[in-house]
Amino acid sequence: MITVRELFTRKELKEFVRFPFQIFKNNPYWIPPIISEELDTFDQEKNPAFEQADARFFMAYKNEQPAGRIVAIINHTEIQKQHIKKMRFGWFDVIDDIRVTQALLDKIHEIGKKNLLEFVEGPVGFSNLDKVGVMTEGYNQLGTSLTWYSQPYYKDHLSQLGYLPEKKFIESYFYFGDVDNKNFDRFAKIIETKYHFKALNFKTTKEIYPYVDEMFALFNETYAKLASFVPISHKQINYFKEKYLRFIHPEFVKFVSDENNRLIAFAITMPSYAKAMQKAGGHLFPFGFLHLLKAKRKNDTVDFYLIGVLPEYQKKGVTSIIFSEFFKTYKKHHIKIARRTPELEDNQDIQLIWKNFNPKIYIRRATFLKKIH
Q: What is the rounded distance in angstroms from the CA atom of residue 144 to the CA atom of residue 156?
């Protein structure tokens, strides 16, 4: 017998957060989240995403045993300002029983229908800075700590229930040893001289803080044309600032400004925390933070988290300045591999950025969509 229950208390949500630990136990490719941080993500008092979105949490039980989980999300900014009548779902994990998947998704459709929405799409989070998609390829690959892992039957269940792939994402990696940085250096000097651009480098996290608000404003403008985009509010900026800056190695962040000191481009990379988070096993204490600290200080892999250039500068070679600076930093820190977090497959602008890096696609993922009847 399959039942679905809505969760409300922090104790219940802890069971929700811990459910993937059950189904991915001993899976060498799954990267567990930090449990306390996941709980904070779902806390309306701590996560400002709830100012523009509603979320409801459900778990499915088969014969009274946990069998699946899902979050129902309504983003009011998306619906009221962008007029996209979307019912979102995220944090989707299930055992291999399609009846469990159907029971969970029936709840999503029920909520969407009550709110006069037109279609369901997921898995997605509250915004573009959350995790996205179920994997469609690359199940035997270790991805990044900024993505969801899923089993092949996740997409099979969705397809069998009439969901169609909507947005497709790719994740790739490249070796710095395969790239001739001399071309970047030469072109960067030309662009800097011609347009009076300036690279901004940092030695401490404190030095980054004054630029964060401007960077997110640039982020909103850069990503606005993407189909999946929802603007980031000022409170969300502060939230992400506190959540992620402590994990960022300041030397792995690069900005570019124009002659008036206006920020025109940014790139944020982080040391890979995938293996460290596996060792932490969902807990910062007593020893989890030590694994993360070690990964921050000594690593041979970086994750490209965000990169953006103001639209009017996207064809003026700004990225050559960013990569020229990155090469210097990565050589200093003995970085060998860069992994890219999910990027829309049809985002031609972002694909052009990587054309000279000989990237190798190793994971594909997608969101799935179905109309509400």
A: 23
Spell out the alpha helix ranges (H) of 65-179: 76-80, 98-114, 152-160
Q: Are the CB atoms for 324 and 370 separated by under 8 Å?
A: no
Domains 2-172 and 174-363 share a fold: yes
* Domain ranges for the chain: 2-172, 174-363
Q: Identify whether the C-beta of residue 151 lies closer than 8 Å to the C-beta of residue 89.
A: no
Secondary structure class of 302 (helix, strand, coil): strand
Question: What is the model's pLDDT at position 171?
Answer: 97
pTM: 0.94
What 8-state DSSP symbol labels residue 342? P
Range in 104-108, 242-246, 271-275 the model is least confident about: 242-246
Residue 355 has pLDDT above 90, yes or no: no
The model's pLDDT over 195-216, given as tens digits with 9 standing for 90+, comes to 999 999 999 999 998 999 999 8
Residue 18's pLDDT is what? 98
Q: CA dist 330 to 180, 184, 213, 219, 254, Å?
A: 14, 14, 26, 24, 12
Task: Report the distance separating Cα 272 and Cα 267, nearest Å.
Answer: 15
Is 341:130 a contact under the CB 8 Å cutoff? Answer: no
- Helical (H) or strand (E) element with 57: strand 53-62
Contact criterion met (CB below 8 Å) for 72 and 87: yes
Fold of the domain spanning 174-363: Aminopeptidase (3.40.630)
CATH code for residues 2-172? 3.40.630.30
Strand pairing of 337-340 and 301-309? parallel
Instruction: Tell me the pLDDT tens digit for each residue of 138-161.
Output: 999 999 999 999 999 999 999 999
Q: Residue 328, Cα to own-chain centre: how many angstroms?
A: 26
